[in-house]
Design a protein that fits this description.
It contains 24 helices and three strands. The chain is an all-alpha fold. The chain has a three-stranded antiparallel beta sheet. Helix 4 packs antiparallel against helix 5, helix 6 packs parallel to helix 8 and helix 11 runs antiparallel to helix 12. The protein is elongated. The termini are far apart.
Length: about 500
């Protein structure tokens, strides 16, 4: 069984501080590192008990190595003694269980506050940007403990406030990184600006206070930071992801798609969890534009294939009933992601596919009566999709097992089948007007004769591609469109 005595722990901190090795020093203050259990086992049994007001024995061990002995007058106060003692106390409180999560948060808050004061101390004569990784570790742990403390407060029927308290300290740390005036960017705290910005984004999203993200974006825009490409790729991907989600919530879908597309191109394939989060928003954005994901992408993500597969099939075939069924069936999941509204708006693309089918079956006329569109729309709304047929069969079998009469079974199944949205000519005219406005349909409506005059050149325009087409690709697409228009429509054979 490995043991890490307090004297050994303090010696490791002292050596790493002298070498200014911020990466390895951050591991010694990270609650997720593998030093936590050996350090706890290396304490005296009395120090592993709940706090009783007496001074723990490990603080005496830390004072010899990490105290202010030998400190020069013009040197800032060293934070390592308080941080090591606080970190050890947090480990002990975590081991005692969730009942001490609020006290663990308070001690971690003191650690971050002590380190923040050391970062901004005016007595620093040398840059302290090397310690930014320690800032990452202690702030990340503070956020985790704040969430646990809020859960404990909810259990105690109190108003949760610890995560909001932590966010105020994160703002100070973000400002400490952003306002560093060291000319050497690599050695300054500015290299930690985007990490702290992303941590604040995560905190604000957790608090459902996304409007506060504007302050972070405004502060970064007004500063003299290097371009984002100058910073680590992990910071770039996370920052662009939250910018994309923030734009998505503002319904700025163009910017949201651009940011998330940038993220999906930069994120490594070995990070499936990050790809999963990006696709939760990117796929609905692409569907809204009428762009369907490739089969390879769907096969690589079973979750998104199950979630959006029905929408894609309905979108391609113009099956309104199936689209509405999938929308009702996946409502809770889409609401939890915040993508229900955009999936609902994407239904217009399904309507476009249905109306294009109606136009093709009418032999692609230049004019088409609004009543023809209305009849096709209402007929499609009445036709059950396969999922609803399965549901009707399950309902029929369930009612039969319950001993219901044949008339009652027919009535309930018929109510399921008649659950449809029917439109009259005026409502269909409104649907067509919206489609013309959104460039899903080219033409105009003659209100008097109740007909739609369709454009001779692509009455149902193609959706814009994800990437711009080359000249030869555009010519090939135009040629295929002309050939498609000239192709005769096969007669509709009715099977009796």
């Amino acid at each position: 069984m490995n043991l890490l005595r307090p004297q050994q722990y303090a010696a490791q901190i002292s050596d790493l501080v002298n070498y200014q090795d911020g990466v390895n020093l951050a591991r010694l203050f990270d609650l997720a590192d593998n030093h936590r259990d050996p350090l706890w086992r290396g304490l005296l049994p009395s120090d592993q008990q709940p706090p009783s007001g007496r001074q723990p024995a490990y603080e005496t061990a830390y004072r010899g190595k990490l105290g202010d002995f030998g400190k020069k007058k013009d040197e800032p106060a060293r934070p390592w003694l308080e941080m090591a003692a606080g970190h050890t106390a947090v480990i002990c409180l975590i081991k005692l269980g969730t009942d001490f999560s609020i006290q663990a948060f308070e001690r971690q808050h003191e650690i971050v506050n002590t380190f923040y004061r050391w970062l901004i101390d005016a007595l620093h004569k040398e840059p302290n940007g090397w310690a930014k990784h320690v800032l990452y570790a202690v702030c990340r742990d503070l956020k985790t403990l704040a969430i646990q403390a809020d859960n404990e407060q909810v259990r105690q029927q109190l108003k949760p406030s610890r995560l909001e308290q932590a966010s105020r300290l994160f703002q100070k740390c973000f400002a400490a990184c952003l306002t560093d005036r060291n000319p050497d960017v690599q050695a300054s705290r500015k290299m930690g600006t985007y990490y702290m910005a992303c941590l604040l984004f995560k905190t604000y999203f957790k608090l459902k206070s996304t409007a506060l993200c504007k302050n972070i974006i405004r502060g970064i825009t007004a500063s003299d930071l290097q371009p984002l490409a100058f910073y680590p790729k992990a910071h770039q991907v996370t920052f662009n992801y939250y910018l994309g989600v923030f734009a998505f919530l503002r319904e700025d879908y163009v910017e949201a798609e651009a940011k998330l597309q940038m993220c999906i191109e930069m994120v490594p394939r070995r990070a499936p969890a990050n790809i999963h989060k990006i696709l939760n928003y990117l796929i609905p954005l692409m569907l809204y534009r009428g762009v369907l994901p490739s089969r390879q992408l769907l096969e690589s993500s079973i979750y998104h294939s199950n979630l959006f597969g029905g929408f894609f099939q309905a979108f391609k075939t113009g099956n309104l009933r199936m689209y509405d069924f999938e929308l009702a069936d996946k409502e809770k999941i889409l609401m939890s992601h915040g993508t229900y509204l955009i999936i609902e708006r994407s239904r217009e693309g399904c309507v476009r596919a249905l109306l294009k089918k109606a136009w093709i079956f009418e032999n692609k006329p230049a004019r088409m009566a609004i009543s023809s569109f209305t009849n096709v729309y209402n007929q499609a709304s009445l036709t059950l999709c396969q999922s609803e047929r399965n549901e009707a069969e399950r309902l029929r079998a369930k009612l039969k097992e319950q001993g219901k009469s044949l008339e009652e079974i027919k009535a309930q199944v018929l109510s399921l089948e008649m659950k449809a949205e029917k439109l009259d000519s005026e409502e269909m005219e409104c649907v067509l007007t919206n489609m013309i406005y959104k460039n899903l349909l080219k033409g105009y409506i003659a209100h008097g004769p109740q007909v739609v005059v369709l454009s001779k050149d692509r009455p149902f325009p193609w959706y814009p591609p994800v990437t711009a087409l080359r000249a030869d690709q555009k010519a090939q697409r135009d040629a295929s469109e002309v050939a498609e228009r000239q192709k005769p429509v096969p007669p509709l054979v009715l099977r009796v």
